[in-house]
């Protein structure tokens, strides 16, 4: 411990206003009461008592007290030491006001130097030997820590240590008893040294110990300095792991390490806001800037990866920092720590911009997708799966996206949106997540338009509608089963389920109209045998051709698949059954009747039940092959409702 040497001249005590702010008494003058009531006899008694106990604990003496802690040796004697220092300070005020050239003033100043040297030593020892009792985790759990003077706790209580402990604990609620005593000791020493003008020495010891604790704490959390040159060489996969670990570490770092250190510092140095601020600044500023370096670099990272590989980690970072902002603002509230808050706010702004850029890149990717690879059976396209997976994941970040998109309103003609979506998406701008809802609705619309374009690539119209049915069904299912439903609402689902039904109806019309028209209308005159034979041939050819083509198609959703089969069967089977039962008897004499009438009404339902699995039953296109293949019953039958 450095020896504190001070040269005293009598003239320096001519007025308190000339005393050094850090190496004198308080800059505030002594209260009128203290100067009026502090008599010469009291001054002499204070000097005598102070000299006795202060010289005993002189750290530069050759006595055993040089290596023994006053506060550990005897708390009663430690309190007496503090009382003597306080009384010595009053005596010095009295001497300055009465006789600034007194020899006793020189003695008092010498005793004060020894006393301060002793307290500096004690302050350092308490800090260094009680690291566990000054755990930031304990301090951070306190919403407030009393900043009232500890002098009364120390000096007005003459009971045993348990009562003293109770008094101290009242000042620091819910802190362990040992921690309460340690913090109480530190605070009373700091108050005493600061009031006597020795705040600088007090800060020196405190900063040395506590800065190492904060730095060590960040190291244990995995927070290390990252060089920009090294950072930009890292793969995104490595950064994803770093970001995940950083989010966990930052929460602990802010809410426990920095918050606990701030509360402890405020408590110990409650006697001087300026000194407390200066001390915390020296302890936490560098560490705070170091903590928030990584997200700032991530926000600026060159974007070599696709949006879906980056945006969610960016939003994780943004959400984590936003959640911590109230604590950050409170902890780094001093002007001297403004650079930490500036870095955090700048990082949030850069993350916002990067996230919005990713959204624009995603929309551009949909627009520019030119993949020609289509499923031959009209199934769900790869782009549909990846796009809806991405958009569904976006919905999990609705709060973050709403904050970001509120500053970047959708710049597009909303009339196109209005044809797809209504309330609450477009109407109420005051609804939470409004900006997010509108933007996600827009992204889905952009994608659906791309689906329409891809459907046109099919040469067969019926297959293009199968494609639209499958892909729109996938979109609707994704919306219904995710947070997207809460964002874009039931109205969206109603409209798109109606659109899905419309696609299914258009498919039926494109794929099965020729089969429906191959049968004579009910209003037609009774057919001659030759005409009936021709009609049977026409129906069988139309049905076999449609079946061969449509049985290779796929409807992915089981419920939709069955509904579509039932719909086709309802329109076809009753009509064919009536025609079959009416005209088959007049053709009984034809020896080719079995080949001619190969499709029996009872089996039509079974034939239709095998549709949309992507496994055609027919092996050839000839009528005879169709007859042979379709004669076997299916394991699944649709009950047809007769008209």
Global structural class:
mainly alpha
CA-CA gap between termini: 105 Å
Helix content percent band = 55-70%
Number of strands: 0
Q: Report Rg.
A: 43 Å
Principal-axis shape: rod-shaped
Q: SSE order in H/E notation?
A: HHHHHHHHHHHHHHHHHHHHHHHHHHH
- Helix count, DSSP H or I runs of 4 or more residues: 27
Topology:
Blueprint (H helix, E strand, L loop, with lengths): L31 H6 L2 H17 L13 H4 L1 H24 L4 H27 L6 H5 L10 H5 L5 H11 L5 H19 L3 H22 L7 H4 L4 H33 L4 H19 L1 H8 L10 H21 L6 H31 L13 H14 L2 H8 L8 H5 L15 H22 L5 H20 L3 H34 L11 H22 L7 H26 L9 H4 L4 H9 L13 H8 L13
Helix pairs in contact: 2-4, 2-5, 4-5, 5-9, 5-10, 8-9, 9-10, 10-12, 10-13, 12-13, 12-15, 14-16, 15-16, 17-20, 17-21, 18-20, 20-21, 21-22, 22-23, 22-24, 24-26
């Amino acid at each position: 411990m450095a020896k504190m040497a001070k040269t005293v001249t009598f003239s320096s005590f001519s007025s308190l206003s000339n005393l050094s702010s850090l190496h004198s008494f308080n800059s505030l003058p002594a209260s009128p009461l203290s100067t009026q009531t502090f008599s010469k006899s009291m001054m002499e008694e204070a000097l005598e008592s102070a000299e006795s106990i202060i010289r005993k604990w002189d750290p530069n003496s050759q006595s055993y007290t040089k290596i023994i802690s006053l506060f550990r040796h005897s708390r009663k004697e430690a309190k007496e030491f503090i009382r003597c220092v306080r009384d010595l300070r009053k005596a010095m005020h009295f001497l300055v006001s009465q006789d600034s050239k007194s020899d006793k003033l020189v003695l008092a100043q010498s005793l004060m130097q020894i006393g301060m040297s002793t307290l500096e030593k004690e302050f350092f020892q308490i800090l260094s030997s009680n690291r566990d009792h000054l755990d930031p985790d304990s301090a951070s759990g306190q919403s407030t820590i009393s900043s009232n003077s500890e002098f009364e706790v120390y000096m007005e209580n003459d009971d045993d240590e348990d009562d003293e402990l109770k008094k101290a604990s009242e000042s620091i609620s819910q802190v362990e008893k040992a921690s309460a005593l340690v913090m109480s000791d530190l605070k009373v020493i700091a108050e005493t040294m600061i009031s006597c003008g020795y705040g600088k020495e007090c800060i020196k010891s405190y900063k040395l110990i506590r800065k190492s604790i904060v730095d060590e704490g960040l190291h244990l959390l995995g927070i290390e300095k990252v060089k920009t040159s090294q950072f930009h060489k890292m793969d995104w996969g490595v950064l994803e792991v770093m970001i995940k670990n950083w989010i966990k570490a930052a929460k602990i770092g802010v809410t426990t390490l920095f918050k606990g250190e701030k509360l402890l510092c405020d408590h110990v140095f409650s006697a001087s806001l300026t000194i407390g601020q200066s001390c915390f600044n020296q302890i936490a500023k560098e560490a705070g800037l170091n903590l928030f370096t990584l997200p700032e670099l991530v926000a600026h990272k060159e974007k070599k990866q696709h949006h879906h590989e980056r945006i969610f980690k960016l939003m994780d970072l943004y959400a984590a920092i936003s959640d911590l902002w109230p604590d950050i603002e409170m902890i780094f509230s001093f002007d001297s720590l403004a650079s930490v808050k500036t870095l955090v706010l700048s990082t949030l702004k850069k993350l916002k911009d990067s996230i919005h850029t990713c959204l624009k890149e995603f929309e551009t990717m949909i627009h520019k997708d030119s993949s020609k690879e289509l499923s031959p059976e009209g199934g769900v396209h790869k782009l549909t799966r990846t796009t809806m997976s991405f958009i569904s994941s976006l919905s999990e970040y609705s709060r973050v996206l709403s904050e970001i998109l509120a500053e970047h309103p959708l710049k597009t003609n909303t009339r196109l949106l209005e044809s797809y979506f209504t309330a609450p998406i477009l109407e109420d701008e005051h609804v939470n997540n409004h900006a997010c809802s509108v933007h996600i609705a827009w992204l889905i619309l952009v994608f659906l338009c791309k689906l329409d374009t891809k459907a046109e690539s099919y040469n067969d119209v019926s297959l293009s509608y199968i494609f639209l049915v499958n892909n729109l069904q996938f979109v609707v299912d994704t919306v219904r089963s995710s947070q997207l439903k809460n964002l874009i609402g039931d109205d969206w689902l109603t409209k798109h389920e109606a659109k899905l039904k419309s696609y299914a109806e258009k498919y039926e019309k494109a794929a099965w109209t020729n089969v429906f028209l191959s049968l004579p209308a009910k209003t037609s005159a009774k057919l001659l045998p030759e005409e009936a034979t021709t009609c049977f041939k026409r129906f069988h050819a139309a049905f076999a051709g449609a079946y061969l083509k449509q049985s290779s198609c796929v409807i992915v959703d089981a419920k939709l698949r069955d509904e579509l089969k039932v719909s086709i069967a309802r329109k076809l089977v009753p009509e064919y059954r009536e025609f079959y039962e009416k005209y088959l008897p007049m053709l009984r004499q034809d020896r080719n009747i079995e080949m001619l009438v190969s499709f029996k009404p009872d089996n039509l339902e079974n034939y239709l039940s095998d549709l949309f699995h992507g496994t055609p039953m027919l092996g050839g296109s000839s009528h005879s092959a169709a007859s042979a293949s379709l004669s076997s019953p299916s394991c699944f039958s649709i009950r047809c409702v007769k008209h």
